[in-house]
Amino acid sequence: MNKKLVLFNLALLLISILIFGEYLINFASTSSSYILFLLFFCLLALHIFVIGIICNQEKIYKQNIKLYLLLYIILLISLTIFINRPSFALFDYQYLQDYLNNINIIPFKTIIHFLNSNINFGIKIYNILGNIIALIPLSLLLIFINDKYLSYKKQFIVLFLTVLGIELCQFLLAAGRFDIDDFILNIGGALLFLVIIKKTKTINTLKHLFNNDLNIPPFTKYIILIIVSVAIIIMDVLFCLDLNIHTNDSEKVYFEVSKDTSCDYFRKIELANYNLYLKCIEVYFTNQDNYQFTLESALTNGELDLNNLDKYFKIVEFLENVTIYRNNNLVMFTCNNNQDIYVGDETMEYKGECE
Known about the structure:
Layout: H1 2-27, H2 34-55, H3 58-82, H4 93-102, H5 109-116, H6 121-127, H7 129-133, H8 136-145, H9 152-172, H10 180-199, H11 203-209, H12 218-249, E1 255-259, E2 266-271, E3 274-279, E4 281-286, E5 292-294, H13 295-300, E6 314-318, E7 322-326, E8 331-335, E9 341-344
Parallel strand pairs: 3-9
Antiparallel strand pairs: 1-4, 2-3, 4-5, 6-7, 7-8, 8-9
């Protein structure tokens, strides 16, 4: 019976990860819900946990720690490399130059910027709180694997190499920029967690939680397993449906661009509370009902919502003063300080227009 449960667990995990991977590779570079993905992986982890307490064997508990670590690595890579990141691209000289211009080696500069800026609250949460808790699961799993990781020094080495590896991958895949505050928040958050659990002497309690069936009645265990399994299957189906919908939507062209090759300047259009700058192009937006508008008209009458640009663009990068969006034939800079918008063709690079 236990063997069948373990095989069922592995099969469901494999199918779910493959479905998630397909969705991730194809569409997660457009704006996606971090909360949804976190919920999905929490359900997968809970499924592993329930299988563990049903089998209630030391061998299964140890195997489960490895599965938790695998899920965590997949989620960490997804959040730092794929989700809401640009499509992969090998860097060239121009990218290298832009990258070097936008790195941050001043401690707390980015943290202070996000705290003081008027950008979306969700972005603040992701960039500050998200970075603080990002490596806490890794810190805990390291302790479960071996007590030697109760050492601050050994934890620091693993945490530092993890963050360094992420930064290197983001650099090579043009999926982010180096920021010393990432090291401060990621490593600081995990080490603070280690300090707390050591000072409060809750390490054995946590280990007991993941190596014991908690005296839950067998019938209750199976009810929980059924509920969690059904929830995972439902989310798998929703991912597949969303994948199909996005595939159909991706065939629709929302923006048409007319270029003026003899031009080399921004044309300013004054809109309510902000300005639109078009660099040598005319842009036409076609909505879901196939009605076409100029870009300024679409922004003015609400056909194109500034808070929903990620429906049509990939969020390439968050910089100190600007959010950069891109799709196949357009690049858009939205200024965080005054909401001005700069739009150009796919060759346009950010050169400090929002500063």
